[in-house]
Amino acid sequence: MEVERPELILDKNIVLKNISMMKNKADKSGVIFRPHFKTHQSLEIGKWFRQSGVTKITVSSLKMAEYFAADNWNDITVAFPVNIREIDFINQLAKKIKLNLLVESIESVKFLSENLKADVSVYIKIDVGGNRTGIKADNINEIASLVRKIRNCKKLLPEGLLTHAGHTYQAKNKTEIKSIWNDSVVKLKAIKNSIDNNLLVSVGDTPACSVISNFSEVNEIRPGNFVFYDYMQYKLGVCGFEQIAAVLAVPVVAKHSDRNEIVVYGGAVHLSKDFIEERGRKIYGGVVKLFFESWSKPINNAFVKSLSQEHGIIKIPQSEFEQIKIGSLIGIVPVHSCLTVSLMKQYLTTDGEKIFTMNSH
Amino acid sequence: MEVERPELILDKNIVLKNISMMKNKADKSGVIFRPHFKTHQSLEIGKWFRQSGVTKITVSSLKMAEYFAADNWNDITVAFPVNIREIDFINQLAKKIKLNLLVESIESVKFLSENLKADVSVYIKIDVGGNRTGIKADNINEIASLVRKIRNCKKLLPEGLLTHAGHTYQAKNKTEIKSIWNDSVVKLKAIKNSIDNNLLVSVGDTPACSVISNFSEVNEIRPGNFVFYDYMQYKLGVCGFEQIAAVLAVPVVAKHSDRNEIVVYGGAVHLSKDFIEERGRKIYGGVVKLFFESWSKPINNAFVKSLSQEHGIIKIPQSEFEQIKIGSLIGIVPVHSCLTVSLMKQYLTTDGEKIFTMNSH
């Protein structure tokens, strides 16, 4: 492999399988599949989704919406509470595409109603227990009042109720994830029934979308991470290891035989500092052997022990340690692929193709 | 402030003060001041160092060396164990500038001796207790043998012994930091005395360089973070709050009065996920009020509680909570300014000037 420095290796076949797996589940359930593109951030990978029949997408910023709108994506949800300081940018985009924003306060709706120059659809952000943001699901009066405000504004169209049940990431097993899904669905449907049956119900997280097989209780799903998955999802039990599509190739720069540790060129600026905790240890990534066009299963008992700005320290069993040479490459399975992509800004596929993202340069 | 989305605000006057403080201490001690430029990654800020009389610098990658070499920096240390897969890049740079690399193994030295096409100076990386990388300081035989190998190669010039005492970041107070400094100095001088008195002794971390006033026991210092400092250094007690030069301005997008939390547009893709732990809590940043050309002292009992990809959740006392409006700006003091710069890629000074880094586009 002609890799001189850290490079994010992507297996296109796995990506295509992940896309069609989720698309098929959504189709069978008769729901809208609006994948979150913040994970891959790439026009090229967007085209793979388009080829599978996807026409509506989710992004995490207006800049990302603009990037994809330039490639003819024209129904885009920005799944982030509207930032009213970007009103000019909102107006510019809303003139070109069907732009869907998230609101959760009277203040934001008031500001939009006074400053919008084109139609915008809005989802109301509902907090089903993630406790990050959104109106609490049991606060039906506040939600109803916000819907009325929205209806009173000519340029705002109420699209639906949206949630991101991020607490599935803290779940201990599939049963807990399923129970969070069920709980979210019950809460969102209760709001819908008591306010307006035309409101769409949109849910999003990859853990739930991976373990639930029938989505027909909702109207739309917005998973993102499933396109590549990662070490966190694998350890959470929501994907198989063979579904992980991206691995960071890193050069080995030093070996420490007294403690079976290798030092690699690959740190926080490549992987981010997300970690999982396992048996009291922080783990910043899994470890695989790299082959020409694929990679091995995770090396048993090997893990990324720490990351500094450019360094990664990998703990590895004696038998494997001895086979690794200074100057060779090894693969790190990112704990959180979205952040790794955001940092790496481009991919090298196992077929040798370079793929760019909105941050490539 | 004309800020629509997260923007890294820089106070140039504080930066200049930090630079001259460290330069003066180095000059008084009669040691080489070779600041680490990985913190700011900017040609413009490099010029501020040059104006203070700096001529030698440290970087963390060959790419960064190339970036600064293009602006006539011609004595550059890449403070990272040499990555032999980049040999072509090394040869290219070594023909143009005095390039100083780090070695710590016979394998790397052998590879360099067979593949170098221009002279390269090398430092031997010594581990004084940080346990990240380098040859253990008490392993004098191995160090001596590596120095002999280096001397046997015509294109390799032994420059000195280099360490990064990263364990100062785990110190509990200034006394501990000073004791780590003293311990490092004793170890490095013992190696030097027993091998070759011409070897330079180069040490690096910002905590020690901030609390030590006389560096004359060593030959060179390489601090980087001190140029901006950050919340971690402030909490470690090695800088005053007024020495922190960079703050992330973020728009407020939601408020949750039931739990005195505000949601800002500013997350892991802007700040990184570095945190400090205080009284059992994870803290991802301090919080300040932003004025036109400066910022307040940290708001008491306010802190960044969590970060996801684009969201930050700030916990803030009731009295302050009520004054904050949706759409206003608030300042986050980064836990780790180096990583924040690497993610933000550019600065806006309090004078309204845009400053770019090697990753700007």
Backbone structural class of chain A: alpha/beta
Helix content of chain A: 25-40%
Q: What quaternary form is this?
A: homodimer
Average pLDDT metric of chain A: 96
Q: Work out the strand percent of chain A.
A: 25-35%
DSSP strand tally of chain A: 20
Name the chain pair whose interface involves the most residues: A-B, 58 and 58 residues
What's the end-to-end separation of chain A, in Å? Answer: 22 Å
| Sequence stretches where pLDDT stays below 50 over 5 or more residues of chain A | none
Name the overall outline of chain A: elongated
Rg of Cα set of chain A = 22 Å
The biggest beta sheet of chain A, please? 9 strands, mixed
The count of helical stretches of chain A stands at 12
List keywords for this structure.
homodimer, 361 residues, alpha/beta, nine-stranded mixed β-sheet, 20 strands, elongated
Task: Explain the overall architecture.
The structure is a homodimer of 361-residue chains. Chain A has helices spanning 12-29, 43-51, 62-69, 87-96, 106-115, 140-151, 174-195, 206-211, 231-236, 268-271, 318-323, 337-344, and strands spanning 7-10, 32-33, 57-59, 75-81, 98-103, 120-127, 135-136, 156-162, 200-203, 220-221, 246-256, 261-265, 276-278, 281-283, 285-288, 303-307, 311-315, 329-334, 346-349, 354-356. By secondary structure, the first copy, chain A, is of the alpha/beta class. In chain A, the strands form three sheets. In chain A, strands 1, 11, 12, 15, 16, 17, 18, 19 and 20 form a nine-stranded mixed beta sheet that branches. In chain A, strands 2, 3, 4, 5, 6, 7, 8, 9 and 10 form a nine-stranded parallel beta sheet that branches. In chain A, strand 16 and strand 17 (311-315) form a beta hairpin. In chain A, helix 3 packs parallel to helix 4.
